[in-house]
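Hello again, I could really use a second opinion on something today. I've been staring at a protein lately and its backbone has me curious. Please have a think about how the structure follows from the sequence. I owe you a coffee for this, so here goes:
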Amino acid sequence: MQRNLKIDFHTHIISEDFLNLAEKYGDDRWPILEKTCDCGANIMIKGKKFREITNQAWDTEERLKDMEKEGIDIQVLSPIPVTFSYWSVPEQGLEMARSQNDFIASIVNEHPTKFIGLGTVPLQDVDLAIKEMERVVKELGLKGIQIGSNVNGKNLDDESLDLFFKAAHERNVPLFVHPWETLGGERMPRHNFMYMVGMPSETALAAGSIIMSGMLDKYPNLKICFAHGGGALPYLLPRMDKGWNVWPQIQKTEKPPSHYAKQLYFDSLVYDERNLQLMIERFGIDQIIAGSDYPFLLREIPSGKVVDQLTNLTDTEKAKIHGLNASSFLSLQVKQYQ
């Protein structure tokens, strides 16, 4: 019996020779990579350590060893979200995006059966973002775009971003939304709450903004996947439905929020089978994609572990979450990866 294809949709990568725009432009807000040893580095912002990373974040051979050990056939590579840098001058943001996109494309080209790439764009300038999205897909051959959950405090349903989503819809470019610059950030430093509370809350706000905006009525074939199981969204959907019903003046959609949640995709990174079961009930089995957040400390090992822990799923349903749903979302020709 052939083993099911396993795709880890949510993984991050950074170049060991990461572009140093802080030095180039004399602006310490840019993230830079400071190696601490061959096995690790710190991402630094404004002279302070933002986070520690291991060489798994850039060493392809280490990554391939982990994939072999954990039974993962394909990783989908995306940038580390702190590098979005939407605050920057758009042309400088484009420089950062192009550097990362070229790097990810080089890794995919080197190992075309093991890696799939998602690019990034300077979303603070929609025209530049659309042009880079086209280059990413047409010239580099990457399969989609990773975007942040807000753009300089603007939610994703802000009118200034509409043309970007329209372009993604018309060009059939999948989008992966990852939290960054989380709401309430000034209250999050203690207990590492940015990662445990801030990111799930931020993701729910981003998803809720798209659901409530009418965007999915206007662009019904738009493909959007949200990280971390949609954050708090599965739990909040009934409250959103209630609000939609009792405040008709806020209604911008034809149907209640829970209807549109079933048009979105979500990774499976929720750690607990009861949480995954709730996601299945709220979104549907076809909308959930296995993803681990490799190579960070909060990652699931292996990707899709919680899927296999949910004993009421059939083999067919598990196969969908482990790989088939990602294949559909990214419009893959699966045979070329087997």
